[in-house]
Design a protein that fits this description.
Distance between the termini: 22 Å
Structural class: alpha+beta
Number of helices: 4
Strand content: 15-25%
Radius of gyration: 17 Å
Number of domains: 1
Length: 171
């Protein structure tokens, strides 16, 4: 599968691992399934103070989304239902204890610490909803017909699936 990754251009021409609980699933390598979203991410999140120099990587990712060690919440109904169940259970328990909705960071901290999806999960395919209708990738105003899909690859699986060919594109 061809996927895309964007990160700052700092002389190191490698795909950068993301760290911390601001990431959806904690530490890992994050790839966009759609090139337009990767380019948008590079322009809006990598570029700082008007300086825009980022690398766009085209990666041939070797992932078997039908295997038991990949959670495909986008196209596999059972994986999606399990994923929603985990989120709903966490959110309900959190609200019951703290009387407030959890933040994404609080959920990611929980996921990272508890290994809730299990140690055998090496990658997760996930989609979220874009929230800006004025960007290039939206061809019809306010109709988000393209899924914004990312794939997170974890350290325990990086050597299994990250045998990739990278085509570096400076933007």
């Amino acid at each position: 599968m061809i996927v895309y990754h964007s990160n700052r251009s700092d002389g190191d021409n490698t795909v950068v691992k993301a760290y911390g609980f601001k990431q959806w699933f904690g530490d890992g390598y994050y790839f966009w399934q759609d090139k337009d979203f990767a380019e948008f991410w590079g322009r809006t999140h990598v570029c700082k103070n008007g300086i825009c120099s980022y690398n766009l990587y085209v990666v041939d990712l070797d992932v078997d989304f039908d295997s038991d060690n990949v959670l495909d919440t986008v196209f596999n109904e059972n994986d999606y239902n399990f994923f929603v169940e985990v989120y709903d259970k966490f959110a309900s328990n959190f609200f019951e204890r703290k009387k407030k909705k959890p933040t994404i960071e609080e959920f990611n901290f929980f996921i990272g610490n508890k290994k809730i999806f299990g140690d055998n999960i090496i990658a997760i395919r996930f989609a979220d909803n874009p929230n800006n209708s004025k960007v290039d990738y939206v061809k019809i105003m306010d109709l988000h017909y393209r899924k914004r899909i990312q794939i997170a690859v974890f350290e325990n699986g990086v050597h299994k699936v990250l045998n990739y060919t990278t085509i570096l594109k400076n933007k």
